[in-house]
Design a protein that fits this description.
Layout lengths: L6 H19 L8 H17 L6 H11 L5 H8 L9 H9 L2 H40 L5 H20 L8 E5 L2 E5 L22
Antiparallel strand pairs: 1-2
C-alpha cells in the first residue's frame, strides 16, 4: 500500500519522525536559561506522548543533562552518577538543578569577564603589532599581501606574548654589584674566584 492511499498513516509517521528528531537534536542555546531549556524539553516530551511515543526515565533524564551548556558539567556529572537518575521524574531533576543555578551563573560571569579581558588584550596587541608591521613595510618599500602581513603579525604577537608572560625563574640566585648594574649570580658561583683579577663571584671568562 502506498502512503498516499492512507494519508492518516503517513501523517502519523511524519509526526513520529518529527518528534523523535526534536528529542534527539534538542540542545540549549548559549545564553538560554535553565527554565527555558526545561520548558522546550517538556514541550517535546508532551508532543511525543500524544502519539504514544515514550522514553524511560533514564533516557529522558540523560538527554536533558546532555542538552545543557558546558557550565553545567559539574552538576550534570553529579546527577549522572546519582543512583536515582533512572527513577526520578524530570521535574525532580529540574528542581535539583535549580538549586545550583546561582552558583553556575556566577562562575560563568567570572569566566566570561576573564575571557573578555584576554580577548581585548590580544586584540590590542594584534592592532599594535599590525600597525608596526605596516609601518616597517612602508619604510622598507615592501609589498606583502594581506595573508603574509597577517602571518607576520601573528608571529610577532606570539613572540611578544612569550616575552611578556613567560614565568620567572624560581632558582635561588644571588646578586652582586658589578659597576653600576645588579647582576644575578647562580649559587654555584658563590665560591668561584676569577683567575684574571683574583676577585670572587665570577669566572675568568666573565671578567
Amino acid at each position: 500500500m502506498k502512503y498516499n492511499e492512507n494519508p492518516g498513516c503517513y501523517t502519523t509517521q511524519l509526526r513520529h519522525t518529527c518528534c523523535m528528531n526534536n528529542f534527539e537534536e534538542l540542545k540549549a542555546k548559549e545564553t538560554e536559561s535553565l527554565k527555558s531549556v526545561f520548558d522546550r524539553f517538556c514541550t517535546v516530551l508532551n508532543d511525543m506522548r500524544k502519539i504514544n511515543v515514550n522514553k524511560t526515565e533514564l533516557e529522558t533524564n540523560l538527554k536533558f543533562l546532555n542538552a545543557l551548556q558546558l557550565e553545567w558539567n559539574k552538576s550534570c556529572h553529579r546527577l549522572r552518577n546519582d543512583v536515582r537518575v533512572s527513577s526520578m521524574q524530570i521535574q525532580e531533576m529540574y528542581e535539583i538543578l535549580m538549586t545550583d543555578e546561582n552558583i553556575v551563573l556566577e562562575k560563568k560571569a567570572k569566566l566570561d569577564k576573564k575571557n573578555k579581558k584576554t580577548v581585548d588584550l590580544v586584540a590590542l596587541l594584534t592592532n599594535q603589532l599590525a600597525e608596526q608591521s605596516l609601518s616597517d613595510n612602508a619604510y622598507n618599500g615592501a609589498t606583502d599581501d594581506d595573508g603574509e602581513a597577517l602571518e607576520k603579525a601573528m608571529i610577532l604577537l606570539s613572540q611578544h606574548y612569550q616575552k611578556k608572560f613567560q614565568p620567572r625563574s624560581s632558582s635561588n640566585n644571588l646578586r652582586f654589584t658589578f659597576g653600576s648594574k645588579n647582576v644575578k649570580v647562580p649559587e654555584a658561583k658563590k665560591d668561584a674566584v676569577c683567575f684574571n683579577c683574583g676577585k670572587p663571584g665570577h669566572f675568568s671568562k666573565e671578567c
